[in-house]
Amino acid sequence: MTALTLSTAGAATLRADALVVGVAKGAKGPVVAPGAEAVDKAFDGKLATVLETLGASGAEGEVTKLPAPAGLKVPVVIAVGLGSVPEKDAAFDAEALRRAAGCASRALAGSKKAGFALPVASVEDAEAVAEGALLGAYAFTAYQGGENKLAPKDKKNGNGPKSPLAEVALLGTKPRDKAFKAAAERAVAVVEEINRARDLINTPPNDLYPESFAAVATAAGKEHGIKVQVLDEKALVKGGFGGLLGVGQGSTHGPRLVKLAYTHPKAEKTLALVGKGITYDSGGISLKPAGHNETMKCDMSGAAAVFATVVAAARLGLQVNVTGWLALAENMPSGNATRPGDVLRMYSGKTVEVLNTDAEGRLVLADALTRACEENPDAIVDVATLTGAMVLALGHRTFGIMANDDAFRTSIHEIAEEVGEASWPMPLPADLRKGMDSPTADIANMGERMGGGLVAGLFLQEFVGEGIAWAHLDIAGPAFHEGAPYGYTPKGGTGSAVRTLVKLAERTAAGDLG
Hints:
By secondary structure, this protein is an alpha/beta fold. About 35% of the residues lie in helices and about 20% in strands. The chain has helices at about 35-40, 45-55, 95-105, 125-135, 180-200, 210-225, 235-240, 240-250, 300-315, 360-375, 390-395, 405-420, 450-460, 500-510; strands spanning about 5, 20-25, 30, 65, 75-85, 115, 165-170, 225-230, 255-260, 270-280, 320-330, 345, 350-355, 380-385, 400-405, 425, 445, 470-475, 480, 490-495. The strands form 4 sheets. Strands 8-9-11-10-14-18-15-16 form an 8-stranded mixed sheet, sandwiched between helices. Strands 1, 2, 3, 4, 5, 6 and 7 form a 7-stranded mixed sheet that branches.
């Protein structure tokens, strides 16, 4: 991954491939942001004028490259837009800094080192710039650059993808200050785990399936002191995990339930996280139409987020117990697959009539939720790319939050907004529960079409133990980005919800959630 250093050099003396500065959108044109004073001086105080001449406005996401003047040690200056100038005495928003740094990192692909002289008024600002720069430098290239055996031996095979920016030098910080050091270390740990989640989401389903995902989790557990338990098909049958088995029985790759337990000797609270891990979702017998299944390798994004969060908690040494449950299965059509009309007996003992095999995520989550609740955590959060209905409701950049406790839902929403992940609190209307009544079983896995994302949440709530605060994050929209990269968000897997969950674990450790 891209290296991060807190540089003691000034903007005028730093030796690097490029220097990144901020520019804001003012009422009368672009305004050079704090941190770029030395650069502006090198331009004889006319940096804003030069940028305006080149068409720059300071709008968010705007990147302008300039040849550096003689007063700097770098060959290139990159001015990145921060959006509107803050009101008097206000600092730039942390998310604006995060996105600007990400834009700059993406523009610097192929470079060895770049200095970031963005406005850093606090430790929090420094951490935001570090996160954005590191997240923006991500690239998934594991399956690119293969050798063309038909090409002449003495010729290179194509240009290939550019490697990510190798080093980020953060300027305007206090490298010897403990708070700045801690912020940098946290940024590196969290981003490395987000990128681990991104890698898993982007891995083709012929290579990532329940067993191989479980192997990755087991290896990470050994590396970071996390206890890992894997329930294979035999163990799932013995335990009566009908939801996981029902979804996975159509595939040659059997399902798994993976438990990751990070514990701290001084922890007073336990947070349980449950992730949907459908490593590929064909829809099963209720087969998805063409155009809707090409990206379904991303249907394990919830499990990837949970996995990354547990590892991040361990790396940060958080004083809280964090248990992750990865409900892993591949949903395929075959002669062995669950049929619409079948009834599954879940781990909880409830029976579920399967009306649509493409509503499979709630089935694997239900088993994992019940098992997680048996350990009586103080709170439980499930994360899933659960419904297309949530994408219709909130779009591609915002995830929905449902909960059985309004205060808990509000806390998660506030945390998500704080860390820069767009979210929105959603209700669980009791009247929608009746639509899942079944004449054959205790409940059906489908209900009313309208409000389908809320119906899925109501289904999951049926499998949550009494007295346990529970929240459900439907990340179907932001988990996988199919368009052009923006800010620090790449094309493909995004690692959605990891920052929210890590901050939730930190708040729980600090006792800030009540």
